[in-house]
Amino acid sequence: MTGFVAIIIGVGIAVAAAICVYVFVIRPWHLRWGATDAEVQRSLPGDELVPNPDFEYTQAIAIQASAAEVWPWLVQIGYKRAGWYSHDWIHRILGIAGSVGDDRRSAKRIIPELQDLEVGDVIEIAPDMGFAVASMEPDRVLVTEAEDASWVWFLDPVDEGTTRLIVRFRQDYKPGLANSLMFGIPSELGSLLMQPKTLRGIRDRAEAAAGQGR
User: Fold this and answer.
1) How much of the chain exceeds pLDDT 90, in percent?
2) What's the whole-number mean pLDDT along residues 18-34?
3) pLDDT-derived band of residue 181, with 50, 70 and 90 as boundaries?
4) What's 132's domain CATH number?
5) How many folded domains does the chain comprise?
6) How much is the pTM?
7) Quick one: 50 and 73 in the same domain?
8) Domain containing 8: what range?
C-alpha cells in the first residue's frame, strides 16, 4: 500500500508540474507566437467586435513577399475552400478535411474561383460552422466574426518584398465547465497546434509563388 500511495503522489506531482509548465511557460509563449510586443499591444480592425475578451491571442510571422502576393492565399482559406494550410492529418481525423478538388489536402496553388470573397460570406471551419466576413480591405485586412468571437488577419508591409502577417483571435465566453469544454479548450488547442502551422503554411506558399514569379 505504501508503494501504491507513493506512485499516486508521484503522478500527482508530475501532473501538477506539467500544468505549471503549460500555464507559466508554454501558454504565454504560444498566445503571442512570433509576435512582437508592439504587435501584441497595437489595435487592429475588428477589436471592437469583442471589446472585452475572455480569451485572446495575437500571433505573427514574417513573409518574404509583398502584401499583394500574400493576400490571394489568405482570401481563399477555409473548409471546402483551399483548406487551412495546417496539419491536414488532424483535420482528416476530425472529419473536417477538404478543399477544392476534395483531395483532403490544403491547396498549393492560388485558386481563381475562390478569389471573390465578399462581406457577409462565411468561411467554414466545419460543416454549418464558421466565421462570417465582417469587413475586408484587399491586400490589407480580413475581419471575420462568429458569435462572441472575432478572427482578424492583418497584413503589415515592412518593405516592397516583406510583409508581417498578424493574426488576432478574441473570444468572449462565460466561465464554467461546459463553456470551457465547448469553447475554451478548443480555442487553446487551436492556438497551440493549428494557428502557427497555418501561418507557416501561408508563408511557405507565398514565398515559393513570389520567388517563381520573380
Assistant:
1) 57
2) 69
3) very low
4) 3.30.530.20
5) 2
6) 0.83
7) yes
8) 1-30
